[in-house]
Amino acid sequence: MNTTITRLFNIKYPIIQAGMIWNSGWKLASAVSNAGGLGLIGAGSMYPDVLREHIQKCKKATTKPFGVNVPMLYPNIEEIMQIIVDEGVKVVFTSAGNPKTWTSFLKEKEIIVVHVVSSVKFAIKAEQAGVDAVVAEGFEAGGHNGREETTTFTLIPMVREKIKIPLIAAGGIATGRGMLAAMVLGADGVQIGSRFVASEESSAHINFKNEVVKAQDGDTHLTLKELAPVRLIKNKFYNELNELYQKNPSSEQLKEKLGRGRAKKGMFEGDLDEGELEIGQIAGLIHEIKPAAEIVKEIVSEFVKVKKSLC
Predict the structure, then answer these.
(1) Which CATH superfamily is domain 4-203+285-310 in?
(2) What is the pLDDT of residues 50-67, one digit of tens each?
(3) Which of 247, 193, 187, 257 has its CA nearest to residue 220?
């Protein structure tokens, strides 16, 4: 495949594995990169020294391009960015913040910068900030989400209409059919998260992986919009949160209920009752835990097959 995304990252397929907290360590990132996509290490759940270790291990595990995803609300952001530079990382995906803050710094170091957005307005701002590409993510996606609740297949053509730089679609994509549909609507490539959660190399707990495989249509919901919108599998914690909402809680009450470390507890430690179980709506199409390379191969094979059938 030859698109602006494959050329930008020097990869075989325009498939990017999302940098998901507690799921995207060096094993997953290197496996996806070795399979022809672009693997991302998720820095959002890593202390600086842990991130450095993952980058170093990833460099040993693959000779292919890989990157790091950095939520810009990270408390040690300056140290994180310096580690990325020191370790020679060539691709950085930024999210949850103003792209102007770090884009110039990174590009001065000859690092490719991609910013994740959830609206046309922020896609335009990212382009103006000088990023090399944007990821436009619809609210079908797992984890933290945009407040606008714009679906991926509505968002992609609207963003495509307004920007000239390469566009990556994310949210609700886990198959070759979904990838083809996104590209027909104007995307140059896709970013896939949930499908890679249920991979053998994902650092998620096996309990969480199995819960993703079990998930059906309607089993996830976008909540906590007053704090930071997040899509969760409905479990005991979610149900208690929903009961709290019936009492018209304040933001402080919601923060108190959320507490600290719930995402780690759910996804990394496997507590299916008290943890946050962040996953996208597309989980209803995920039926098996497989090696990342096999997932990439299946997506590409289906993409090619369906594209030929439509010609």
Answers:
(1) Aldolase class I (3.20.20.70)
(2) 999 999 999 999 999 999
(3) 193
